[in-house]
Amino acid sequence: MSDNPFYHDYMGTSGGINTFPFFGENPSNYHDQPIIPNIQNPNHEHQFVPSSYMTLTECLHGSMDYNTLSSVFGMSCSSSSEVVCPHIDNQGSTRKSSVSATAEPILDSPMGDQTSVEVPPTPNSSISSTSNEAGGQEDSSKIKKHMQNKDGQEGRDDKSKKECKATKKGEKKVKEPRFAFMTKSEIDNLEDGYRWRKYGQKAVKNSPFPRNYYRCTTQKCSVKKRVERSYEDASIVITTYEGQHNHHCPAALRGNASFLSSPHFMPSFPPQLFSQMLIPPTSNQNLLITSEAYNNINNNNYHQQNQGSEYNLFGGGTNDASWIQKQEPS
DNA sequence: CGGTTTTGACCGGCGC
DNA sequence: GCGCCGGTCAAAACCG
Predict the structure, then answer these.
(1) Which of A11, A222, A298, A311 has the most CB atoms around it within 10 Å of its CB?
(2) Can you give the pTM of this predicted structure?
(3) Which segments cross the bilayer (predicted)?
(4) Residue A213, CA: closest nucleotide via C1'?
(5) Residue A132 has what DSSP assignment?
(6) Which residues surround strand C, with CB < 7 Å?
(7) Residue A31, CB, less than 7 Å from strand B?
(8) A322 pLDDT more than 50
C-alpha cells in the first residue's frame, strides 16, 4: 500500500470508542490531534491540517452541509451521484486496510441530472467484488431506485408505510444523502456515538451474512444505517448511513473529549477505530489515510489488532481513482 | 417497566 | 401477472 503515495492506511484506536471517518464530535474534543491531508497543497500529501478536519458525526448531524460534503467527495450537490469505493488494489487480500468511503449523495434531482458511478472489477480484489456485489451493487440498485422513484418510496424514513402510501403520487421528496464505509472489523455495529435501534434484518442474496437495519433513536431524527458484512471477506463490514442527524451526538453530550474513553460510554467496547477519513491531496473523490502515514506523523503505532478488531481506512488516491468512473447520465 | 432486539409478514418496485 | 428482492412494520421476546 505504501507503493501508492496517496494510499494511506490508518489503523487506529481511541481506547474506548471507534469512530468512522468523519465521526466524532468537534475535532477539538479529540485526544488525538485530528489530521487531514493538506488539500491546498497537493504536493504535500503527508501534510496534515488539524484545523480543517471534519468528522462524520459533524457531517451527519449537520455541522457540515451537504454541499460541503459533496465537494469533499467530489460530487455536485445539484446532481445525484454515487461513488462506490469498493476498491482494494492489486495487493488484494494482503492489504489490511479497511474503511472505504462510499459517498452516495442521494438527492432528489431531475432524472436528467443523475450521475452514477460504476465500479469496474478489480483483479485479485476480493473487496472490490465484495462490495460491488454485497454492498456496492446493491446500493447502486437502490440508489437507482431512489433516483427513479419520485413518489416517496424511500421517503418513508420514520413515517409508516401507510403514511407513505398516502403520499401524493408525483410528490417529490428529498432523498437523504448516503455514505457507506467498509470497515475491517469483527464487530458489526461499530460505535459512532449515536444511538441506534435495530428495526430489521434481512438475508442478503448470495451472502451468508444478514443485513441489519438501524434507525437513530432520537425523536424526529430519520437517519438510518445499514450494516452488512461482506460475503467474500467476512472481516469487512459495510456500513451505509442515510440522512443527516438533526441533533447533537449523544455521546458528545456526555462531555466533550471524555466520552471517547469514558467507561460510562460503551464500557464493553474494546479500543476501536478512532480514525479520520482523509481527503487525498490530489483527488477529491477518495478519502483515506494510512497507518503508515499516520504513524510517520505522530510517531505512534496505531496499528491495532488486539481484541479482535482491526481498522483501517482505505480509499483511493490518484492511483486508485481508476476504479471510480463517473457514469454520465444515459 | 421501558427500551431494544428478533423475526415473520407485508409492501412496493422491478424484471421477465 | 407473477415471482423475486430490498426495505419496513410490528408483535413478541428479551434485557438491564
Answers:
(1) A311
(2) 0.51
(3) none
(4) C7
(5) I
(6) A 138-139, 141-142, 154, 156-162, 199-205, 211, 213, 224, 226
(7) no
(8) no
Chain B footprint positions (protein CB, under 7 Å): 3-9, 11-14
Name the nt closest to A153 by C-alpha to C1': B12
pLDDT(A244) > 70:
yes
Residue A223 lies in a domain: yes
Edge-first strand listing for the sheet containing A178-184: A99-104, A178-184, A236-242, A224-229, A210-216, A196-203
195-214 of chain A touching strand B, CB 7 A cut-off: 195-202, 212, 214
User: In residues, how long is chain A?
Assistant: 330
| Residue A232 domain-assigned (yes or no) | yes
Specify the CATH number for the domain of residue A183: 2.20.25.80
The whole-number average pLDDT for the span A132-153 is 36
Residue A169 identity? K
Range of the domain at A221: 178-247
| Chain C bases closer than 7 angstroms to a protein Cβ | 5-10
Calculate mean pLDDT across residues A196-205: 90
Of all helices (H) and strands (E), which one includes residue A130? Answer: helix A126-130
Q: Is the CB of A44 under 7 A from strand B?
A: no
Mean pLDDT in residue range A41-51:
33
The confidence band for A193, taking pLDDT boundaries of 50, 70 and 90, is confident
Q: Which amino acid is at A60?
A: L
